[in-house]
Amino acid sequence: MLDFLYTNGWGAFAVMLFFQLPFLYFFIKIVYRKAYIDKGASETESQKYPMMEGIWITTVVALFVLVNVLSVVYMPPVTTAAMIKQGGNFQEVDVTARSWFYEISEREYEVGRPVIFNAKSIDTVHGFAVYHPDGRILFTMMLVPGMEEASTLVHTFTEAGNYKVRCLEYCGIVHHGMQDVLVVR
Ligand SMILES: [Cu+2]
Questions:
Q1: What's the CATH number where 115 sits?
Q2: Ligand 1 centroid, distance to 176 Cα (angstroms)
Q3: Do the bridges between strand 179-184 and strand 161-166 make them parallel or antiparallel, or are there none, so unpaired?
Q4: Range of the domain at 50
Q5: Which helix (H) or strand (E) holds 83?
Q6: Structure confidence by residue, pLDDT tens digits, 104-138
Q7: How far is the CA of 179 from the centre of ligand 1 (A)?
Q8: What share of the chain is helix, strand, coil (3-state, %, to 5)?
Q9: What is the predicted pLDDT for the residue at 138?
Q10: Within this chain, do residues 56 and 129 fall inside the same structural domain, yes or no?
């Protein structure tokens, strides 16, 4: 029901507002109190104070909201395994990490067909990072041993090629050798 909160940038924005609004309420309440009720040793004339303070607070809040709204488009959309399973056309792959290699149930995928990676570690903390053939990281997962369920991540490959897999969590003496290759056709 609350899926929208973590599947796109607007959900993140809504959560941010949810946490910021109580803070803003108390902030304004305290400023108001200092300006009118409990002036204390303030030297500022109470006539001038509220207007400057009002402009200042409004500017800060407006800038804050504006920067957050403008950044929403840069948030990558999240696709959950449940969303993909409704669509029907997907490939499900089990990944088990152990010192110092991966057991991967299927290493060949198709361009455009979503792959659901169910990954887990059985001995220590390992990573499962997949690299685009041009060298940039597409995604990485941190696999913690002892989890009851495998961690799930959905990725749809858009280009054919050989995709390197590497462990990005230091896991012991052969950590650097913990690699694999996935093939997308
Ligand atoms: Cu490692």
A1: 2.60.40.420
A2: 7
A3: antiparallel
A4: 4-74
A5: helix 81-87
A6: 999 999 999 999 999 999 999 999 999 999 999 99
A7: 9
A8: 35, 30, 35
A9: 94
A10: no
Which of the listed residues 74, 103, 126 is the one where a domain comes to its end? 74
How far is ligand 1, taken at its centre, from the CA of residue 168, in Å? 6
Q: Contact 9/19 with Cβ under 8 angstroms?
A: no
Distances 94 to 10, 32, 106 between C-alpha atoms, Å: 31, 58, 8
Å from CA of 173 to ligand 1 middle: 9
What mean pLDDT do residues 92-108 have? 95
Could you tell me the distance, in angstroms and rounded to a whole number, from the CA of residue 127 to the centre of ligand 1? Answer: 6
98 C-alpha vs ligand 1 centroid, how far in Å? 9
* Same-domain status, 67 and 88: no
- Mean model confidence pLDDT for the chain: 88
Residue finishing a domain among 74, 93, 117: 74
Q: How far is the CA of 159 from the centre of ligand 1 (A)?
A: 27
CA of 167 to the centre of ligand 1 (A): 4
Q: How far does the centroid of ligand 1 lie from the alpha carbon of residue 138, in Å?
A: 18
pTM over 0.90, yes/no:
no
